[in-house]
Structure formats: structure tokens, C-alpha cells
Design goal:
The chain is α/β, with parallel strands linked by helices. It has helices at about 5-10, 35-45, 60-70, 85-95, 115-120, 135-145, 155-165, 180-190, 195-200, 205-220, 225-235, and strands at about 25-30, 50-60, 75-80, 105-110, 125-130. It has 11 helices and 5 strands; from the N terminus they run H-E-H-E-H-E-H-E-H-E-H-H-H-H-H-H. Helix 3 packs parallel to helix 4 and helix 8 crosses helix 10 (about 205-220). This is DNA-binding response regulator.
């Protein structure tokens, strides 16, 4: 099976009835960090974890973009501060491509690094601190690949709230979002799962998935993390 056939078989989003990434083949992970020792540690962990495979390394942002275009990984672990092109610019280049279904997880030293919110706005699916425990890193890769937002334990939401909650920010209107979709979006922004949303709104899981899928399309969002960004920028809390 070639890469395009595999893409069709696996799908790219958990919402809308598509098969989650990694449901058929191993999750393909690329590493982007200017510290060779850190890349080697991550590669060792990934290659020794069932269901994961490291498909390449990059030491600069420009190399990360080229690598993503060449091998089309499912996930890129992206450092923010790299030479030539930083992680924000590299994330934007990777996520703006409609052809690539790659998702980006940003790695940072500080959980309120101003650069991280820029990366989330550029299309990243979440972020992790570099001192993350091995099991947490593996879980994060699988969570993001499944189409869920990497929000727990709330660090991503704290970050988004801190930067879009600034008094001088301008609210971006939410286009053509119905009252029910707005309710769903508010709950997504609070980190609720589909099951929790269904229970709170007294609707079926299928109905919630339909609403989330429509929100992804209307707000041009790649995943739930981007829905959270859109919700906060739209003035929701």
C-alpha cells in the first residue's frame, strides 16, 4: 500500500466518522530540535514503543518543514527555538498545507512561553514541557493523533486564556455558528470530551460528533485545540 492509499485508509480526524491516525499502521513521528542528544533520547523512546515509529529528525525549522513535506509524518515533535526558522514559522508552514495531515506538538521549557501561543495559533495541536515523563509523551502523541486536543492537565487552556484574555485584544466574530454549535464550542473550550458534552446537553454522541465536525469546517480548524483557540478569540469562556 502506498502513502496516499494509507492516508485514505487511516483518515486524518477522529470527528466526522474518519478513522483515527494509527488505526491501521504505526504512528509515524518526526523530531525537530536543535539538540541532538534530546532527539536521540526521543527517537530511542519512540522506536521502542509499540505502535510508534520515528521517521526522521531535523535540527532547524527549515529542515523540519522539508522533512514533513518529504515523509509526511503523522506527528511532529517541534521545538520552538531553533536556528534558520523557528518552531512557530515551521509549524505554520506545515499546518497551512492542505495536502499534509501532519499534526504538530510543540516542545518548550516554560509552560507560559509567549512563543507557544504563537505556535498554537499557527496550527499546533498542543504543547509539552521538555521534561515530560516518557509515558506522558507517548500518551500525548496518541491523544493528538486521535484528533483530541492536548489540553490536560489544563496548561494549554491556561496559556490560551492568558494571551487572548489580554484587555487590548480584538474579538474575532464566529462565522455562521448556530446557538447549539456555540454551546458545543464553549464546552470544547472547557476541555470537555464528546461523552461529557453529550451528557451535559442531553444529546447523543453522534449528534455531538456532527456538531464538532461542522465547527471544524466552519472555523477552518484542524483539530479540537484549534477550536479552543477560535472559542477564546471569539470571546467565549
Amino acid at each position: 500500500m502506498n502513502r496516499s492509499e494509507s492516508d485514505q485508509a487511516e483518515g486524518s480526524q477522529a470527528e466526522g466518522g474518519r478513522t483515527p491516525l494509527g488505526a491501521v499502521n504505526k504512528l509515524r513521528v518526526a523530531l525537530a530540535d536543535d539538540q541532538a542528544l534530546l532527539r536521540a533520547s526521543f527517537r530511542l523512546l519512540i522506536d521502542n514503543t509499540t505502535g510508534l515509529s520515528c521517521v526522521g529528525e531535523a535540527g532547524t525549522g527549515a529542515e523540519a518543514v522539508a522533512l514533513a513535506r518529504r515523509v509526511e509524518p503523522d506527528i511532529v515533535l517541534m521545538d520552538v527555538r531553533m536556528p534558520e526558522m523557528n518552531g512557530i514559522e515551521a509549524t505554520r508552514e506545515i499546518c497551512r498545507s492542505g495536502r499534509l495531515r501532519t499534526r504538530v506538538i510543540v516542545l518548550t521549557t516554560f509552560d507560559l512561553d509567549e512563543y507557544v501561543f504563537g505556535a498554537l495559533r499557527a496550527g499546533a495541536s498542543g504543547f509539552l514541557l521538555k521534561e515530560v515523563l516518557p509515558e506522558e509523551l507517548i500518551r500525548a502523541i496518541r491523544v493528538v493523533a486521535s484528533g483530541e486536543a492536548l489540553l490536560a492537565p489544563g496548561a494549554t487552556r491556561r496559556l490560551i486564556s492568558a494571551y487572548v484574555g489580554q484587555p487590548e485584544r480584538r474579538v474575532t466574530p464566529l462565522p455562521e455558528v448556530t446557538a447549539r454549535e456555540r454551546e458545543v464550542l464553549e464546552l470544547v473550550a472547557r476541555g470537555r470530551s464528546n461523552e461529557e458534552i453529550a451528557a451535559e446537553l442531553h444529546v447523543s454522541m453522534g449528534t455531538v460528533k456532527t456538531h464538532v465536525g461542522r465547527l471544524l469546517a466552519k472555523l477552518d480548524a484542524r483539530d479540537r485545540t484549534q477550536l479552543v483557540v477560535a472559542a477564546y478569540e471569539g470571546g467565549l469562556r
